[in-house]
Structure formats: C-alpha cells, structure tokens
Amino acid sequence: MARIAIVTGATGGIGREFVREISTNAAYADIDEIWAVGRNKDKLESLRADCAKVVAVEADFTADAAGVIARRLKEAGPDLRLLINNAGTAYMGLFEQMGTAQAEAMCTVNCTALASLTAASLPYMHEGAGILNVASAASFQPNPYLSLYSASKAFVRQLSRALSVELKGRSIRVTCVCPGWVDTGMLPRKKDGRKIHYPGMISPAAVVQKALSDNRKGKDMSVPSFFAQFCRLYTKWMPAKLVMAQWTHMIEKYV
C-alpha cells in the first residue's frame, strides 16, 4: 500500500513549496508519492521533472477536481499520510463588480471543493496522518474589498478547528494555516502605476516550513510571521467596525 501526500494548487507559490518541502524533508521520507494537483499540464510536468515522487493529477477545482481525486483514491486504495488543501482563488475589489460566475467559482474552490475532498480523503487516512488547510489572516476579520475571500477563508478556519477536535480520536492532526501577505504570483504589484505595499510579506518557504512543523506538533492553527500573529490578536480584541475602518483606509487607494 503506497503512502501518499496530496497537495492541491501544487504548481505555484505555496503549493509548489509544499511539494518541495515534503520531497526533501526527512520527516516525510516514508512518503512514496506526492499527488500534485493542478490545472496546468505543463507546470505539472515541470514539477514532476523536478521531483521523482510527484504524480501529476490534472484537475480543475472549479469543475470536478474533488471527484477526480476521489475516484483515484478508490482505485489506488493508498495510505494517505498528508492532505494539503491549498487550492484557492481571490478577488480584490467591490463585491458588486464580481459577477455571479466569479462569486460562485470562489465559493466552489475555496469552500465546497475543500470540504468535499476532505470528506473523500478521510477513509484513506490513519493514525498519525495530517490535514493542512490553507486559509489566511484575512479570515480573522471582515475585509471590505476582500469580502467574499475573507468570508470563504473564515469558513476554512472554522471547519478546520472543528475537525481538529472531531478527528483527535483517530489521531489525525488538522491544522489551519493563516498567513498574512505571501510573496507569490497571486499578488498584483502595481495599481495604476502605483506600487502596492504589502506589510509583513513573507516567503512561501516560511509559511510551509512552519505549517508542517505545527501540524507535526498537533497544533490546530499555524500563523506564520509577527504580522499575521499581530492581526490575529488585534482583531480578537478590537471592535470589528474599527478594524474594518482601518483596513479600508489602508486598502481603498488600490481598488
């Protein structure tokens, strides 16, 4: 029975770093295959060329990616040691300008597909396995101009923390990963010729290394960087209206 890890959104940024870290970290030396899930065939092939353990799974989470993976799990019957739910999508701007299709797609990718894949994966997970769900520091508060993204990541955080309690009896560790700004291709760098400043930005490697370490320690939350930790505490104790006003003042010049 093959021992596997599944990484969604594996072809760039945080996802690609998860693949690299799992393939090189001695703590995961017993993993035989890393199922790297993504939409871009060429990027998946490049990832497989870089790592012999990679099994490329071409799938689209706006469609039936969770179903594709579920069927492959049923066929292979593996020992699933790590599930990394990293696939996600974002939108910065007025909610009313998103449009129905984009709003539905975000909910599908960030919420529905994550929950469906987790449900499909649990029958193949055993004692000592780990689940890491990538949320965001944006989940700590309502964020105007990131309204649906923040709400979807709050869903991920609440689900993850509840599952961490439910699955303790099976000794399966669940960790919600809540970084602040991460230096990936998802972030625009300029708006109308003006450079966008992202306070406390960190590298994907810093996010991934802390996330995996926290999961091995059994922590239900992984909050990398002082900035994200400050956001978590600040939004816990300050009135939400004040926090939203401060956020809006900072961000509205870019949207």
SSE diagram, text form:
Blueprint: E1 3-8, H1 13-24, E2 33-38, H2 41-50, E3 54-58, H3 65-76, E4 79-85, H4 100-121, E5 130-134, H5 147-166, E6 173-177, E7 190-191, E8 194-195, H6 204-216, E9 221-222, H7 226-237, H8 240-251
Helix pairs in contact: 1-6, 3-4, 4-5
Offer a concise description of the structure.
The chain is α/β, with parallel strands linked by helices. It has eight helices and nine strands.
Structural descriptors:
two-stranded antiparallel ribbon, 7-stranded parallel beta sheet, 9 strands, 255 residues
Description:
The chain has 8 helices and 9 strands. With 255 residues, the chain is an alpha/beta fold. Helix 1 (13-24) crosses helix 6 (204-216), helix 3 runs parallel beside helix 4 (100-121) and helix 4 (100-121) runs parallel beside helix 5 (147-166).
